[in-house]
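Same chain as my last thread, 121 residues:
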Amino acid sequence: MSTTERGTTSGRQLAHPSVEEIRLETVLHALADPVRLRIARELADGHADMACIAFDLPVSKSTTTHHFKVLREAGVIRQHYEGTSRMSRLREADLEARFPGLLPAVLEAARRSACSPAPSA
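reply #2:
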């Protein structure tokens, strides 16, 4: 059963899995998508709380909403409302407690991959 977190300025609630409910295969599935991995990287690169609209993603608004939902339900991010904005934060401590070293390894691999030239055919 998922826990919920109350928004800071509204009564809207978002469901988040507890630390014990976070599953490895769900986290890996969430981070396997390039758009979701990009969101996680941007949050990890010094943006503690970011509004969903602050991300410049190459997908539609509805698809962006879906990607954030997958990350939230997997336990990768925590979201809350500030006014009408949905703010997102990477659950680094929770993921570290559940799967030590996983998130830093995945994010570092993604950074290296982004810096590498594409292989020629």
